[in-house]
Amino acid sequence: MVPAPRRKNTLYTDGIKYVAQKAGAYWLIDEITFQQYHPRIKNEEFQVWTLKVDLEGSTAGLTCDDGNERILFTKPIEYTDFPLDEIKIYVVDNVILLPSEY
Fold it and tell me: What is the CA radius of gyration of the chain?
């Protein structure tokens, strides 16, 4: 019998909750959490997630790097109404937080 993979418990701060509520962006928390199982991401203790939005086209790109600009993951977002043109989010030891909360 093969043991089931351990699940990571990912938490997020009040600042991230505020952004998700005000911007209707719980999907962004979900996307970051889901990708914690990605082979290139799962062992990174420090991650920088960047959402860059094309406000005219309502599309975006989501990237994750290791804090030293080594890209670990990218994903196009076909539609978003996220109100900012860019946001950076950190993941540190399974906690999603704003850079100001670091």
Answer: 14
Structural domain boundaries of the chain? 11-101
Count of residues for the chain?
A: 102
Which amino acid, one-letter code, is at 58? Answer: S
Q: Report if pTM > 0.85.
A: yes
3-class DSSP assignment, residue 49 = strand
Q: Which CATH architecture describes the domain 11-101?
A: Roll (3.10)
Distance of CA 100 to the CA centre of its chain: 15
CB 48, CB 64: distance < 8 Å = yes
Q: What is the spatial distance between Cα 48 and Cα 69, in angstroms, rounded to a whole number?
A: 9
- Average pLDDT by consecutive 10-residue portion of the chain (102 residues)? 59 97 97 95 96 93 97 97 96 97 96
